[in-house]
Amino acid sequence: MSEDFVVRISTMASQLGLEPFRQSAIKQKLKPYGSVNQPERGLSFQDTELSDEQIVSIFGQDAPSVEFGNRILRVLHGRRTDGTLDLPLPEDIEADLQENPSVVEDGLSFLRHAYPLDEDEAILRRIAREEDPREKEHPSVLMQRGQDLGLYKAVPASQEPYYGPQSGFYQSELSEKEGDPYGKSELDRIRAENDAKREKEEAELQVQIDAEMAKAQQLHDDRSRAIAQRPEQGLETAKELRPPNSFERWVLKARNRAQTKLTLESPEIANMSAFRRLFPSLLLAASLSVGCYFYAQTWTRPKQSDRLFPDVSLSSATIGALVAINVAIWVLWKVPSYWAVLNKYFLFVPAYPYAFSNLGNLFSHQSFYHLSMNMLALGIFGLPLHEEIGRGNFLAIYLASGLIGGFASFARHVVQRNMLTTVLGASGCVYGVISAYLALHMDDRFTLFFMPDKYMDSLSISGSTILFLFGASQAFGIVAPLGKYDYVDHFVGMIVGFFSVRWWQDNGRKTEKPDKKLRLGSWWDPLLGKGK
């Protein structure tokens, strides 16, 4: 076999006007296969290993072991791809050939029938590589790396009879690229799919623009006719119709990519049971809530020298970080290219929920009013609560209130079949913080910071009363909602915050030492509580 290929290569080289080469020269010019620590792998020709029955069907009753059979087939396929079938095989294979002398012939026969490639073209390319003074990797080595990375896929076995170059029919076309013996690149396939997807997207966008322009033109014509009927008023339509510019087209593309193509009648949504909708989010909420508990139990105050901002109080750093995250997500909602990710992971939609959105929506706000109200309440009640119970307990209450409250609201929407409702915002977390703080100050009196001192006692209200009013308003909103507020999220968040801080009080309460760097001052005391 080896001598036959040496003669074959030399003959082809002479026909092309190239200097024939000897076996020793080949070894010097070609980069060796494998190494001491890494034996020659060959090239995979399919995604899975051949079974024992398949090995027997290829090599007959005297077939080698499954492991050896698969290995020699991979090596032979790599040598075919590289045009180096004349080179000696790896030593471990050469040693086993004494017991199975026909495996090379049988293996090549199978590969040439099931996985055809132009071996003659591969030989010519190998000759060209040898003429290059730079040492190059064998194509099979690079292709195997590509398969490992997912850039190339093994070509499926051919179901048609093989009429390739090695069969004597040299006019057969085996590749879309002229003179390419290696098959189609996975990168080329991905590129073609992306091009087709882009063309389809552009076509759909143009149809959408045409429909919007036709609708706008109809509205413009109706207004023009209405104005024409009242010439005495001297009015005229001033708005000029025009197609969207490049920026507006970019926004439309981003909106289309962010919107799902599914409808309520789609099988993926219509056939989804309540359990399938709820269980992943329940598992995530429960796991993270348990994690909050362990975080609260194991958190210890860091050394001042270990902190990133040692001159900022712990409470200010914590609240500031939460506010910064919420503001950052709000800013991202203003950038169209992020809409697809935000819709998926930072917006809760009962119709097709993603479990991670149970956490992501706690930091997500689309309107500045929603963001500012939540962050203002977080600053007012979160700073003093953090000072009393510490960062570990505070973050545990904050996140658990939002997670459990958000899941309760989500479950309510699923049960009531409100599939097109969207849920987002830190309200559940904030209501949990408010409830926790008021639970610690049930007997304290509260008033407004601008109230004159002489009216503070008479125009103050106890923490228990404020807590009751908050809870009653949210409970009433569940029964008779006023506006588009998530009352279930708020109410359940309050329950979680209240019982969490009560548990902290009753089980080894450890009050955090006040941070000297946070000076609330006299104006803060009447705002959030005045002792009896």
Automatic annotation (TrEMBL):
Gene3D superfamilies to which the protein is assigned, alphabetical: Rhomboid-like
Ranges that cross the membrane: 278-296, 308-332, 392-411, 423-440, 460-480
Keyword Membrane included in the entry's annotation: yes
Record's keyword annotation contains Membrane: yes
Region (Disordered): 163-184
Protein location: Membrane
Keyword annotations from UniProtKB, A to Z: Hydrolase, Membrane, Transmembrane, Transmembrane helix
Major location category of this protein: membrane
BP GO terms, sorted: signal peptide processing
Domain of life the protein comes from: Eukaryota
Pfam (any one): Rhomboid
Membrane topology designation: Multi-pass membrane protein
Gene Ontology cellular component annotations, sorted alphabetically: membrane
Listed Basic and acidic residues bias regions: 174-184
Domain Peptidase S54 rhomboid: 361-499
Family: Belongs to the peptidase S54 family.
Protein name: Peptidase S54 rhomboid domain-containing protein
